[in-house]
Design goal:
The protein is built from eleven helices and eight strands. Helix 5 packs across helix 9 and helix 7 packs across helix 8. Strand 7, helix 8 and strand 8 form a beta-alpha-beta unit. It is α/β, with parallel strands linked by helices and 299 residues long. It binds manganese (II) ion. The site of manganese (II) ion (MN) has 3 residues, from strand 4.
Length: 299
Amino acid sequence: MKTIQKMKNEYKNYMETTPPHAVFRAKTPYAVITAYQSGKVLFQGTRAAEEVRKWGKAALDHSNKKNEKPTHEKQPPQTLFDESHIGSDESGTGDYFGPITNCAMFVPQDKMALLKEIGVQDSKTLTDEKIKELATYLLAMDMPYSLMVLKNEKYNQLQKQGWSQGKMKAMLHDACIKNVQAKMDKETSYGILIDQFCMPHVYEKHITSEGRKLDPHTYFMTKAETHSLAVAAASIIARASFVKEMEDLSKMVGFPLLKGASPKVDQQIAKIIRTKGKQFLPSVAKVHFANTKKAEKLV
Ligand code: MN
């Protein structure tokens, strides 16, 4: 809120009518800035980025205490992103159909400029076609990597055994990272960055429950793919693999399966139950998702 007061003062010559739940609204030559009582500040307009820059992301995030994620000791040092490191990311966890795929990749410092140049970035902002193209390119670049696919049958089996999805993800990340390290020079140790999906102590609890140890060079951060080229590369390869698996499963069921877990997915589940029977689902879906029950009502 301190930042918002400062902003209010800074923009005092540009004030507009205050909308409901807002602290103020200002219109500058660059942007329309609306600060809300919740601490959220909205910047709109084609040159809004220039206004955002003035305040710094840190200051703004701080003003928004409510949405702040709990922080931890295993945030990567800022220097990590420009150094050779291993990145790890998974795909398919929120999708009813299809497996979970995970990739860990070692990106050496001297390949980073090239990766940037070819457009390696957050896989969520890329089309499936672009992802496939970049993945093919990355896999041909001779960087140590490991890609694992947790197929639906196995996923459902582990889930029935009592594994949470978080534990499955942790074990996939751990296995891929171990595989990459096995391909590398044992004398040197590199930083490892995992795109964070749970708190580090929870991750550690999962892997130690299976007799594994957390490498002391492991770091965790959310949205790591926007900072680390290694995580971005890993996320592209994991996503490309997921897309490919979905294409194969679609051929198996006879129509293009949808990603995600929307009501449209429920319709597809109902169609599969009608045409192939309920016993077919575990081979193509994460059956513990609430979608299964919703679809059963549609049959
Ligand atoms: Mn991720």
